[in-house]
Amino acid sequence: MASDDRENLEALLEKGLTDAKISPSTRFIKQTVDFIHELAKWNKSYNLTAVRDPLQMVPLHILDSMALYPFVEEQMQDILDVGSGGGLPGIPLALPIPKKNSHCLIVMARKRGFLITLK
User: What is the mean pLDDT of residues 58-87?
Assistant: First the structure.
């Protein structure tokens, strides 16, 4: 991923999270941009999501997933994302709270292959 692309994704993600009153850590921003990069790369071959543009993945996937974050952070012990597909919302929710047990469940082998590579 080009440096400019990464910087644009980081800025868009940080602004969206700040607007949602979520204080993102530098670690979370980096890991989420890495996730978006992998999602976009795998999406070309495995059709994980209809959204193709990584910049559009931020509001349509990441920020949408993070709308659940305040509830998950305070009230949930574990996270189970059933029918996870491309890891949404499970992966974005798991990144800022690594002490919780997070699981993504998917039946389709091609999508499961993508999730396995993220470990």
Answer: 91
Tell me the CATH number at 112. Answer: 3.40.50.150
Q: What integer pLDDT is reported at residue 116 of this predicted model? A: 85
Distances (CA, A) of 23 to 32, 44, 57: 14, 31, 19
Range of the domain at 52: 3-117
When divided into structural domains, the chain yields a total of 1
pLDDT tens-digit series, residues 17-70: 999 999 999 999 999 999 999 999 999 999 999 999 999 999 999 999 999 999
The model's pTM? 0.91
Going by C-beta distance under 8 Å and a sequence separation of 6 or more, which residues neighbour residue 48? 39, 42, 85, 86, 111, 114
